[in-house]
Amino acid sequence: MSQMTYMRANKEAANSQVTGEEQYARADDYYARRNLLPRCIQRLRLNAELEKKKRVLQAQAAEFYREGQLGRCFYRWCHSFQLSQDIRMMERMAFLHHESILGKRFFTEWMERTRSKLKESEKMYQAIDHHHLSLCTKVLGSPPRITSALRIYYPGQPANTIDILDEDN
User: Fold this and answer.
1) Which PANTHER family match (predicted)?
2) In angstroms, rounded to a whole number, what is the distance separating the alpha carbons of residues 72 and 77?
3) Sign of the four-CA dihedral 64, 65, 66, 68
4) Domain map of the chain by residue range?
5) How would DSSP label each residue in 3-61?
C-alpha cells in the first residue's frame, strides 16, 4: 500500500470517528431498522389478522344467533298452529256431540210423547166403548134388549158376533 492510500485511509478513519452518542444513535437506528421495525410490522399484521378473525367470529355468532332465533320462532309457530288446529277440531267434535245429544233427546221425547198419545188414544177408545156399552146396559136393562140394540147399533155384523158381544156383558 502506498503511503498516500494509507494516509487517506487514516484521514477517513479520523473523520469517521464518531462520538459515543452518535454511535449509540447509529446502533439504535440499526437496531430499529434491523429488529424493531420488522417486529412492529409483524405485530401489526398479527393484530390485523386477529381483528379480522374477531370480526368473522362475531359475524358467525350473529348468524348463529339469528338462525337459532328463527328456528325457535318457527317451532313456536308450528306448535301454536298445531294447537289451534287441535282446538278447532275439539270444538267441532263438541258441537257435533252436542247436536247428536240434542237429536237423541228430541227423538226420545218425541217417541215418549207419541207412545203416551197412542196409549191415551187407545184408552179413550176403550172408554168410549165402555161408555156406549154402559149406556146401552142402563137404557136397555135386560140381555135380550141388549142383543137387539147391538143388532141395530152394528147393522153389518153377523149374528154370532153379536151373540159373543152380548155374552161379554
Assistant:
1) PROTEIN SFI1 HOMOLOG, SFI1 SPINDLE BODY DOMAIN-CONTAINING PROTEIN-RELATED
2) 8
3) positive
4) 3-168
5) HHHHHHHHHHHHHH---HHHHHHHHHHHHIIIIIHHHHHHHHHHHHHHHHHHHHHHHHH
For residues 133 and 167, what is the distance between their CA atoms, to the nearest angstrom? 13
Burial class (CB in 10 A: 0-12, 13-18, 19+), 146: buried
φ/ψ region of 19 (left if φ > 0, alpha if ψ in -120 to 50, else beta) reads: beta
Q: Decide: pTM greater than 0.85.
A: no
Q: One digit per residue, pLDDT tens: the chain, 169 residues?
A: 566 666 666 666 555 555 667 777 877 777 767 777 778 888 999 999 999 999 999 999 999 999 999 999 999 999 999 999 999 999 999 999 999 999 999 999 999 999 999 999 999 999 998 888 787 777 766 666 667 777 777 777 666 665 655 555 4
Cell readout for 9 is: 485511509
CA distance 86 to 56: 44
